[in-house]
Every structure is written in C-alpha cells, then in structure tokens.
C-alpha cells in the first residue's frame, strides 16, 4: 500500500509571528486519517517550525534548495544546510520556480540528484500550462517533464521520490482539475513509470494532486484510485481548512 500524503506549501506567506500562530492552530487539531502530513514554511521560519512541531506527527519540509553543496551562490540554500536543522524532505520543480526563477528540467535534474545523494526525500512537481491542455498536449508535456528530470535515476531512488501533478492553470486560480481529469493524468503518469521501471515502482510511488485543492473538493479528488493525496497552497494557510483536507481520506 503506497503512502498517502497531504503537504501544505506556504509559499512566501507568513512572517515569524504569523507562522507561530499557524503552528499553534495546527497543533490543536486532531488527525483522523492515516495520511502523512507535511508543511513547508519559508526559509526564515523553517528552524522555528521544525522545533515547534518536533513532537507532533507533522513533518516540516523545505520549498526549494540549490544543487550545489556550497559556495558562491548568493541567496541560495544547500541540502546540507537543510539537513543540519532537521529537514529531510524538499519540494522541487514547483511551477512558480519554473516560471519566475527559470528553473529548467536540467537544473531540476541536478537538484533531484543532490537531494537523493543527501538522503533527502523529494516532492517533485510538474504539470502542463493551459495552452497544453487546450491543444491536447498535456500528456506529452507531463511525460517529458518527468523523463527529463527523473528517468536517469535507478529504480531504487523512487523510494525517496513523491510526484506532484499540478496543472499550472489550476494553481491559485480557484479552478480545479475535475476528479476525472486528475485521475486520468495520474493513471497516465503511473503507466509511464511502469513502462520505465516496472509495476512495482509504479504501484509504490505516491502521486499527489495540486491546484486549488480545498476542503470542498478534497474528498472527491482523494477518492480516485491513483490520487494519493495533495500538495496544498492557499488552503494550507488556514489550519482548519488544511486539516479538513488531511482528514478527507
Ligand atoms: P493552490 O496551490 O492550492 O493555492 O492552488 C497549489 C500549489 O501551488 O502547490
């Protein structure tokens, strides 16, 4: 049985006081599902969040990292730095990183290698733009993104890879992929994995959906056989909404 995961991506939101308030709210809530729960605060609040949630079942994860071990990369954060404060999982390839910070399949492939070499787990994001969906190219685009960044890996590396399908047209727009669209794409992704690595890897790999996932639609999305959880942006900033999604399984 593969893992179910709900991860909150807080993006560039919440200063220290707001982060503290959200952490306090999160700790009051009760989890009734068996999903793994993660939150990704901004870098300045990572250590604080890690300490605060140390004795809870919520894992604190990073939103990004650099591929180099150290050096002259002003403004960047290394895998070693994350690990030194207890962080073991990193989100890579978010569409906002691709769009606003020019991250390419090539740089992402290096980042994935660095994370795995440091025994970190990766939540790898990808997804098509609206014009790809409209032209019927969405499967080709998605398959290419996964191939370029991940298919050089050994099968065993997939123990530390979580996939997150996030159609760009659904992120922060209030527009969600329908449960059927999500299921179709997740099944396609799993079939691509099976082609490359065999059924064992494909069946064991967690594939999350992201893009305007909310308390009102999470249950239906998560009821689909190939949707193993969600990467949640906006709705993860309100503790009750986030936990309603966590408990939607
Ligand atoms: P959203 O963001 O839930 O606000 O659409 C999802 C994401 O960017 O991971």
Q: What would you say this structure looks like, in words?
A:
With 249 residues, this protein is of the alpha/beta class. Helix content is 42%, strand content 14%. Strands 3-2-1-8-7-6-5-4 form an 8-stranded parallel beta sheet. Helix 5 crosses helix 7. It is globular, with a radius of gyration of 17 Å. The two termini are 14 Å apart. The protein binds 2-phosphoglycolic acid (PGA). 2-phosphoglycolic acid (PGA) is lined by residues 9, 166, 171-172, 210-213, 231-235. 2-phosphoglycolic acid binds next to strand 8.
Q: Which characteristics define this entry?
A:
249 residues; binds 2-phosphoglycolic acid; eight-stranded parallel β-sheet; alpha/beta; 8 strands; 42% helix; globular
**Multimerization state:** single chain
* Average pLDDT metric: 97
Using the alpha-carbon principal axes, give the shape.
globular
Tell me the helix content: 40-55%
Rg? 17 Å
Identify the strand order in the major beta sheet: 3-2-1-8-7-6-5-4
Which kinds of small molecule does this entry bind, naming each only once? Answer: 2-phosphoglycolic acid
Strand % is 5-15%
């Amino acid at each position: 049985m593969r893992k179910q995961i709900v991860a909150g991506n807080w993006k560039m939101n919440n200063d220290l006081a707001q982060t503290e308030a959200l952490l306090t709210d999160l700790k009051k809530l009760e989890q009734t599902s068996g999903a793994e729960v993660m939150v990704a605060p901004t870098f300045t609040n990572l250590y604080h969040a890690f300490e605060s949630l140390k004795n809870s079942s919520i894992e604190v994860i990073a939103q990004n990292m650099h591929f180099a071990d150290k050096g002259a990369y002003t403004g960047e954060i290394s895998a070693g730095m994350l690990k030194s404060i207890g962080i073991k999982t990193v989100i890579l390839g978010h569409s906002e990183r691709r769009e606003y910070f020019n991250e390419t399949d090539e740089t992402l492939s290096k980042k994935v290698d660095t994370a795995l070499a440091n025994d970190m787990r990766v939540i790898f994001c990808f997804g098509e733009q609206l014009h790809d969906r409209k032209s019927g190219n969405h499967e080709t685009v998605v398959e290419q993104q996964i191939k370029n960044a991940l298919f050089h890996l050994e099968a065993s590396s997939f123990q530390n890879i979580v996939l997150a399908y996030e159609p760009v047209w659904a992120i922060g727009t209030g527009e969600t992929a329908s449960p059927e669209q999500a299921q179709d794409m997740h099944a396609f992704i799993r079939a691509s994995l099976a082609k490359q690595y065999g059924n064992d890897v494909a069946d064991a790999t967690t594939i999350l959906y992201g893009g305007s996932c909310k308390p009102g639609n999470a249950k239906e999305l998560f009821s689909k056989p190939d949707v193993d959880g969600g990467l949640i942006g906006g709705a993860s900033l309100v503790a009750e909404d986030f936990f309603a999604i966590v408990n939607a399984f």
